[in-house]
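Subject: Sanity check before I submit

Could someone independently write out the structure tokens for this chain? I want to compare against mine line by line before I put it in a report. The sequence has 189 residues.
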Amino acid sequence: MNIMLFHSTYGLRPAVHEAADRLRAAGHTVWTPDLFEGRTFDTVEEGMAYQDELGKDELLKRAVLAAAPYSERGLVYAGFSLGAATAQTLALGDEKARGLLLLHGTSDIAENASVDELPVQLHVAEPDPFESDDWLSAWYLQMGRAGADVEVYRYAGAGHLFTDPGLDDYDAEAAESAWRTALGFLETL
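---
Independent answer below. Compare away.
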């Protein structure tokens, strides 16, 4: 499978490279575009400030330019938190998308979004400060209306970015469970 893996608001940190290596070890081809052009951040607040400075349009433009050379191959879009939101936006706009793997995040869905049974898997903490229960319920229904085939996995007590061993949010048990499930999902695509 060809996977476009987007980083979180912390930037392209070692955890993203480790995730890409894990995916490659399972036989996938993985690209990890650096939407922040080398900048990484120690806190969510710093990353969000930079993200605001860049603006949503510039961030999306960078993501589209990163994915465009490979989209004809039928990509699985994937990402962490902000990167998941970016991946979702691109997957819903790419008729050749093969799947969508969301780790720790979702995004708004355009009213006219339409996909043909796009396989989607979401892994998110429970509770999650950025993904409330009400939001996730509405998101799930909207994705279904758009034509996506959605699976949601919740991890009780885990921190927001629980798959990143370099952060306080890290939860080894939840991370391993998420990766095991995600790798199984990718095998079905």
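---
OP: Matches mine. For the report I'm noting this point. The longest strand covers residues 119-126.
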